[in-house]
Write a structure and sequence with these properties.
The complex is a heterodimer. By secondary structure, chain A is an alpha/beta fold. Chain A has a single domain, classed as P-loop containing nucleotide triphosphate hydrolases (Rossmann fold). Chain B has one domain. In chain B, 21% of the residues lie in helices and 40% in strands. Chain B has 8 helices and 21 strands. In chain B, strands 1, 4, 5, 7, 8, 10, 12, 14, 16, 18 and 20 form an 11-stranded mixed sheet that branches. A 10-stranded mixed sheet of chain B has the order 3-2-6-9-11-13-15-17-19-21, covered by helices on one side. Classes of the chains: A alpha/beta, B alpha/beta. Chains A and B meet through α2, β7 and α3 of A and α6 and α7 of B.
Chain lengths: 250, 419
């Protein structure tokens, strides 16, 4: 049981190839981290898995527990168990956070089934408490006027509520101070389980002090150029991304 | 209403208005106040005043707020039901009755202003033809908790009616009135030529909410005239979800310093519905505040026109006036015209006006879909949120829920997701 990416190639509408054959297997129960410099394609990888329509998949495939997801719509992939924590979450004016998350949960129910409001709010409040989020965030419009840190916490809140099978976190640590990072890590660590896989995309090793990965991959120029254990992140931190030049043929 | 019960001043006014109506020319393409408007919609031949029908059934269907301070049901302008639990001193009567019992008070406030936003002829028609409506007077220092809810039904084929709402608040008084316009069935053409006069006395609070959910073979002209005295706060809100064509003209006159006017509107046209809205924020006095927010969500082949003017009189210094019209285009074929305007004849004035037209951003849809919400529902949630931002300005939970129930009913009947 894994999220399996095989030789994935994707291009922008103008034909520019961003992913040049990425292969990665994320079994349930494991945390994988992808590190890499800006422009290496790591955010694109997360968006392509989620189904973003700006990218055209030109080769390879992605399967979720054996099921091909590339033919699924964005919403179907989410319901199948993929969760993308956005680097830049959108603002949705006039839609309260509580109603938004409720709509997402409702979308997972069969026709005619309704969410139990009392249980829903209890669950929501418990998880907000874990993330040290003020109750007022339930009534506020989704991400509107939220600080960078509040937006990231809100992503984790949604992840906690939707209980996906695979969590892809796109630079969730970027722009967070250390206190916010610890809270976010607490949320993620609370979700670690043998039934769930994680893909952390990050530019900084610091995140991995708080969320310990099982495997670390280095991405450069649209490909994974090196894989290893947690020590690889430290090596990268020490040597800087310049050391990748040795790994990528010019 | 039998003629002998009417005060002389009123029959005189009606006679003069009839003459004026007959003499005023029909609007033409050259009239600035009808720019982008659809003049073909002004052929009102074939409609006639009708007796009320199906009153009992319509009373039963007159559901609105969970609780009300008073509730009136009109069918084709005839009062068919009323209940009231208002504080002492409040006069809340059918206009026909108030003309007899409070003739002077009605005379002092009834249609005192010249119509200046393009529908002078139709205002004259209304004045000449009005038979009933609601008259509300809240005396000094009396606050009405809760809301006065008024249902206006148009019933029968080609029925014509002239709903009128006249609301006056005395000093430091407070009241909220909701007018709900609906058709008895979905297939009978109708026409409503409505007028509302709102007078917010010094330091008072007056909220007026009009919900237009007529059937899609009915047309409506509604003229709103609001006068706001010193330190008073008035809100005039209009929702358009129904009618084949609706024209709203709304004028707010700020007559004292500290006067505050909120002019709000939500319109959700679909199919071939057209809404044509003209507004005027008239700053007569210095030191007053007005804020207009009109939002249109356009589906299919629908069309909206917004033309607004902020007018600051000479001497109306320290004016704060804002005007925003936002259009959310849910279809490539929908058409939104916006003509914001400003005319300032005073100093130290803060004014801004603007309009935007946009489609839902792809990134917003992606975000909602990435949470498992299907694209059609995602678009609907975003569109609803767009309207909610205006509705929240009503600052009353019950009324907001009522307005949103009409908004949701409209979205429910837009089945194609607007794509």
């Amino acid at each position: 049981m894994s999220l399996s990416i095989q030789d994935l190639k994707a291009s922008l509408e103008d034909g520019t190839e961003i992913l040049k054959g990425v292969s990665l297997d994320i079994p349930k129960g494991e945390v994988h981290a992808i590190m890499g410099p800006n422009g290496s394609g790591k955010s694109t990888l997360s968006k392509v898995i989620a189904g973003h329509e700006s990218y055209e998949v030109t080769g390879g495939n992605v399967t979720l527990d054996g099921e091909d997801i590339l033919d699924m719509g964005i919403d179907e992939r989410s319901r199948a168990g993929i969760f993308l924590a956005f680097q830049y979450p959108a603002e949705v004016p006039g839609v309260s956070n509580a109603n938004f998350i409720r709509a997402a949960l409702q979308a997972r129910l069969a026709e005619g089934e309704e969410i139990d409001a009392v249980a829903y709010y209890k669950d929501l409040y418990d998880k907000m408490d874990l993330l040290e989020m003020d109750r007022k965030f339930t009534a506020r419009a989704v991400n509107e006027g939220f600080s960078g840190g509040e937006k990231k916490r809100n992503e984790i809140l949604q992840m906690l509520m939707l209980e996906p099978k695979y969590c892809i976190m796109d630079e969730t640590d970027s722009g967070l101070d250390i206190d916010a990072l610890k809270v976010v890590a607490k949320g993620v660590n609370a979700m670690r389980s043998p039934d769930r896989g994680f893909l952390l995309i990050t530019h900084y090793q610091r995140l991995l002090d708080y969320i310990k990965p099982d495997h670390v991959h280095v991405m450069a120029d649209g490909k994974i150029v090196k894989s290893g254990g947690p020590e690889l992140a430290l090596e990268l931190e020490e040597k800087g991304y310049d050391f990748l030049k040795e790994l990528v043929p010019a | 209403m039998p003629a002998h019960t009417l005060p002389q001043w009123f029959t005189d006014r009606q006679a003069t208005a009839k003459e004026r109506y007959e003499n005023l020319p029909m609007p033409t393409r050259r009239d600035e106040s009808w720019r982008f408007g659809n003049l073909k919609q002004l052929d009102f031949s074939g409609f006639q005043v009708a007796d009320p029908v199906d009153a009992d059934a319509l009373i039963a269907r007159s559901e609105g707020l969970e609780s009300t301070a008073a509730k009136f049901v009109f069918v084709n302008d005839a009062l068919v039901s009323s209940e009231s639990n208002l504080p002492d001193g409040v006069i809340c009567l059918p206009l026909a009755e108030a003309l007899e019992s409070h003739s002077d008070l009605v005379e002092a406030h009834f249609m005192k202003q010249e119509s200046r936003l393009g529908s002078a002829k139709h205002a004259a028609w209304h004045e000449a033809s009005v038979t009933n409506g609601l008259f509300v007077h809240v005396p000094k220092n009396v606050e009405v908790d809760g809301t006065i809810e008024v249902h206006h039904w148009i019933a029968g084929a080609n029925a014509l009616c002239f709903p009128h709402t006249l609301v006056i608040t005395g000093e430091s008084a407070k009241v909220r009135v909701v007018d709900i316009f609906r058709s008895a069935d979905e297939v009978s053409p109708g026409l409503a030529v409505a007028y509302n006069d709102l007078f917010a006395g010094q330091n008072s609070k007056l909220d007026y909410i009009a919900l237009q959910a007529l059937n899609e073979v009915t047309r409506m002209v509604q003229v709103n005239d609001t006068s706001i005295r010193r330190d008073a706060r008035a809100k005039a809100f209009v929702l358009n979800t129904g009618a084949s064509w609706a024209r709203n003209e709304s004028l707010s006159r700020l007559e004292g310093s500290g006067a505050h006017s909120d002019m709000l509107s939500v319109s959700i046209p679909a199919r071939e519905q057209e809404y044509d809205q003209r507004t005027f924020q008239h700053h007569v006095s210095e030191g007053a505040y007005s804020d207009l927010l009109y939002k249109n969500t356009l589906y299919d082949d629908s069309k909206t026109v917004f033309s607004g003017l902020i007018y600051v009189d000479e001497g109306a210094h320290q004016t704060d006036a804002y005007q925003t019209c936002r259009n959310l285009l849910m279809s490539d074929r929908a058409e939104a015209h916006s003509m914001p305007g400003l005319e300032i004849n005073a100093d130290q004035v803060k004014c801004s006006h603007g309009s935007t037209s946009a489609q839902i951003a792809d990134e917003e849809i992606f975000y909602l879909c990435a949470r498992g919400i299907d694209p059609a529902r995602a678009r609907q949630l975003i569109a609803r949120g767009f309207s909610v931002e205006v509705v929240e300005r009503l600052e009353d939970e019950g009324v907001e829920a009522l307005v949103l129930s009409f908004v949701d009913a409209k979205f429910a009947c837009i089945t194609n997701g607007g794509a």
